[in-house]
Amino acid sequence: MSDRPSTPLLDQIARPADMKGLSDSQLVQLAHELRQETISAVSETGGHLGAGLGVVELTVALHAIFDTPRDKLIWDVSHQSYPHKILTERRDRIRTLRTKGGLSGFTKRSESPYDPFGAAHSSTSISAALGFSVARDLGGVVPEGLGEAIAVIGDGSMSAGMAFEAMNNAGHLNKRMIVILNDNEMSIAPPVGALSSYLSRLYAEEPFQELKAVAKGAASLLPEPFREGAKRAKDMLKGMAVGGTMFESFGFSYVGPIDGHDMDQMLPVLRTVKARAKGPVLIHVLTKKGKGYAPAEAARDKGHATAKFDVVTGKQHKTPSNAPSYTGIFGDELVKLAAKDDKICAVTAAMPDGTGLALMAERYPSRCFDVGIAEQHGVTFAAALAAGGMKPFCAMYSTFLQRGYDQVVHDVAIQRLPVRFAIDRAGLVGADGATHAGSFDIGFMANLPGMVVMAAADEAELVHMVHTAAAHDAGPIAFRYPRGEGEGVEMPEEPQLLEIGKGRMIQEGKRVALLSFGTRLGEVKKAAEALAAKGITPTIADARFAKPLDREMILDLVAGHEALICIEEGAVGGFGSHVGQLLSDEGVFDAGFKYRSIVLPDTFIDQASPADMYETAAMNAPQIEAKVLEVLGVAQIGEKRA
Ligand SMILES: Cc1ncc(C[n+]2csc(CCOP(=O)(O)OP(=O)(O)O)c2C)c(N)n1
After folding, report:
1. 10, 251 in Cβ contact below 8 A?
2. pLDDT(227) > 50
3. Which atom belonging to ligand 1 lies closest to the Cα atom of 123?
4. 289 given a catalytic annotation
């Protein structure tokens, strides 16, 4: 395409081995071209832009100096890995990022040997690098061999407990490994907490320029264990790195901070570390999220995630939405509740915008807590807020709540504390793929004694559920809702407080009952319309609750129909399994009752549009219709008969 950037040097690089003969100044040029190519690709695909732009020079420097895929380069979260993908045999597919059948937006072992460890949830990279370094020293065998273990982790991700657990262990094992702390003073939102202020102090108080000169001039001027003849330099660098001591107290050699956009600093530092490191080393690199693309640099989120956009203007091509988003509805209702009740408070783990809590943070900052990327802490913190007489809403994406699961069990459920879990991005999420799918929360929440579990069928239902959760003081309660916009239904003038454990009838029909839990209700209704044309009118009900189940309603449905079909946007072991358990306990199957439960298939579904993913999962209207016909024994037109 003519509007693609000119990239003469990059055009000669298919893989890192092709970079080995390049001079330092050519590497600078390569980084420039790589940046343009990244911008151009993401303008066509949408996706994570800012993080990748911030590590372009780092990516080039690492691949020039280290020997991937033998050396294991592990990107934390890996939303910053697009430039890495371009340099590692995937440039020809980079414009398929995040689409069905295309490249994943994250590193993925099955995609490339240059992705030794998949990620998408944060703060796993140091543990992974340590595992590789120990496997190497124990003689582990893998096809590409085992060389260095290098983790690249952002300052936001560094704030999570796992990163500290891994550093604690790494310092103790004292294995040779390299952690690159990519400090851009950003998470998705501005980073929060003591670590963030600490990192700022590491460079704010000292003359950065001096280090620049040092790094440029002399590779020997590095701290322990790069001693050789560098006592003076060591003292100097240590002095500059005011309190690099925190990492040192974990047993790491600390180097930095260095300018991550200046190859003249990065190349010598990386070469020296490679030549001389013995135990774990942490290199503190300062970068700018969105670097080199003005619209990203200027954006509030530094171009963290973007739709497709126009490269010249930076204008994103967003399709206008017809209905409000579920996230927005949650955020608005919470603020209304908080206005009336000063005990209402909220917790987010580094996702104030994504979870709709930004408004609450603005209006009631003293009652809205961004705890950083710290879901485990966030859940326990919410538990104690509840124990202290507050009414906490713990707002997390389904997929990230997984990380706080023991806290949900141990701190919330066992103590019957009234934490309100607002579970966003429930169900399949689209372009982010399997790592972000909210597939498991129905199962892992509904199996907990005393937990109330609701799913909103549409945005009006979500309004009721937010208010129902606020009013529920008897124990923990969760409500789930999907990514994206609502169904466009009329919004209630007044929220209702739902009766706990009661579903609602949508349509009375005959022979077969469809019992929906969550937003598949829309597809169920469409299926029912198609069935009506075939003379079949199914009964439709919205369960609202997976726990407690509406026993009465479900047993009535059984009594009045030949068959019952449940559907939910979740993996096996959720709502349908609870209904199946109820029916078996009641002896319903003894009389040959027909029961089906439509759940996500037992596979991890790769990225595609949500509708495509639900097609793969066989959960769209035509597939629901087919299931009804199958269970009733009605052959479909065109179906082959034996
Ligand atoms: C466990 C977990 N919680 C939340 C997220 C959502 N998330 C994706 S990237 C990100 C910010 C990461 O910040 P940082 O590590 O500083 O990297 P940057 O984007 O600034 O390069 C967050 C919170 C996640 N990926 N994993």
Report:
1. no
2. no
3. 1
4. yes
* Torsion angle of C-alpha atoms 3, 5, 7, 10, degrees rounded to 10: -100
| Ligand 1 atom closest to Cα of residue 80 | 21
124 lines ligand 1 (CB under 6 A): no
Q: Which pLDDT tens digit goes with each residue over 248-301?
A: 999 999 888 899 999 999 999 999 999 988 899 999 999 999 999 999 999 988
Taking the C-alpha atoms of residue 46 and residue 35, their distance in angstroms, rounded to an integer, is 15
What is the maximum span of the chain, computed from C-alpha positions, in angstroms?
89
Catalytic residue, candidates 403, 420, 425, 480 = 403
Give residue for tokens 């895929």: 69
Choose one of 373, 397, 398 to mutate for the ligand 1 pocket test, by most ligand atoms within 8 angstroms of C-beta: 373
Query: Looking at 185, 375, 568, 625, which residue is catalytic?
Result: 375
What are φ and ψ of residue 41, in 5° steps? -65, -45
Query: Would the CB of 289 count as within 6 Å of ligand 1?
Result: yes
Ligand 1 within 6 A of CB of 291: no
Report which of 75, 46, 43, 70 is spatially closest to residue 59, judged by C-alpha positions: 75
The angle at the Cα of 524, spanning 519 to 529, to the nearest 5 degrees, equals: 140
As a whole number of angstroms, the distance between CA 158 and CA 124 comes to: 10
Query: Which tokens hold the place of 516?
Result: 């929906």
Ligand 1 centroid to residue 108 C-alpha, Å: 17
Alpha carbon of 76 to ligand 1 centroid (Å): 9
**Residue of 57, 106, 107, 188 to test ligand 1 pocket, by largest number of atoms within 8 Å of CB:** 188
Query: CA torsion 359→365→370→371, rounded to 10°?
Result: -160
Q: What percent of the chain lies above the pLDDT cut of 70?
A: 92
Cis peptide before 223 (omega within 30 of 0): no
Name the pLDDT band for 197 (thresholds 50, 70, 90).
confident
CA of 487 to the centre of ligand 1 (A): 30
Ligand 1 contact via 156 beta carbon (within 6 Å) = yes
d(CA 134, CA 153): 19
User: Considering only CA atoms, which residue is closest to atom 17 of ligand 1?
Assistant: 154
pLDDT at residue 23, rounded to an integer: 97
Q: What CA–CA distances, in Å, run from 32 to 36, 56, 345, 603?
A: 7, 8, 46, 40
Query: Angle of helix 125-137 relative to helix 161-173, nearest 10 degrees?
Result: 20
List Cα–Cα distances, 268 to 32, 56, 212, 216, in angstroms: 19, 17, 11, 7
Instruction: Report which protein residue has its CA nearest ligand 1's atom 12.
Output: 187
DSSP 309: B
Distance between CA 82 and CA 39 in Å, rounded? 10
Please indicate whether residue 625 is annotated as part of the active site: no
Cα–Cα distance between 187 and 289 in angstroms, integer? 9
Residues 6+ apart with CB under 8 A from 235: none
C-alpha to C-alpha distance for 43 and 310, rounded to whole angstroms: 6
pLDDT value, residue 213: 46
Atom 13 (ligand 1) nearest CA: 187
State yes or no: is 403 an active-site residue. yes
Three-state SS letters, 70-124: CCEEEECCCCCCHHHHHHHHHHHHHHHCCCCCCCCCCCCCCCCCCCCCCCCCCCC
d(CA 348, CA 378): 7
Atom of ligand 1 nearest to the CA of 76: 15
C-alpha span between 337 and 465 (Å, rounded): 12
